[in-house]
């Protein structure tokens, strides 16, 4: 029988649509193994987690759309003040609320 690396691997095998094969140098492979072991994870778990983290760090959406939104927002005037003044007003608000 096929040895699975994780209790839910059988479920994942049923829903998996693609396999990813990555060739690593021996030293790199040992380093990844070490990192997985240090987190008490299987190599498969560690790789999936690393890929998920990398995917979440990637910017989402269209760059052009984001730039358009920023340019539109930059055309408007927003109330501003000196940072010390703003912080003093916030602090006064906290003190007023705590005395009510």
Give a description of the structure.
It is a single chain. 0% of the residues are buried. The chain is mainly α. The chain has one domain (1-75). It is elongated, with a radius of gyration of 25 Å. It contains 5 helices and no strands. The model has no long low-confidence stretch (mean pLDDT 83). Helices cover 64% and strands 0% of the residues.
From the structure above, extract its key features:
5 helices; mainly alpha; 100 residues
| Number of helical segments with 4 or more residues | 5
Order of helices and strands: HHHHH
Number of domains: 1
Helix content: 55-70%
The proportion of residues in beta strands is: under 5%
**Which class of secondary structure composition applies to the elements?**
mainly alpha
Mean pLDDT: 83
Count all strands and give the number.
0
Task: Categorize the overall geometry.
Answer: elongated
User: What separation lies between the terminal Cα atoms?
Assistant: 70 Å
């Amino acid at each position: 029988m096929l040895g699975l690396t994780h209790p839910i691997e059988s479920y994942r095998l049923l829903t998996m649509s693609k396999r990813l094969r990555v060739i690593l140098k021996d030293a790199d492979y040992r380093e990844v193994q070490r990192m997985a072991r240090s987190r008490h994870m299987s190599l498969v778990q560690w790789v999936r987690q690393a890929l998920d983290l990398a995917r979440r760090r990637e910017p989402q959406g269209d760059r052009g759309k984001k730039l358009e939104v920023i340019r539109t927002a930059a055309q408007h005037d927003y109330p501003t003040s000196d940072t010390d003044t703003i912080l003093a007003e916030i602090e006064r608000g906290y003190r007023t609320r705590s005395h009510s």
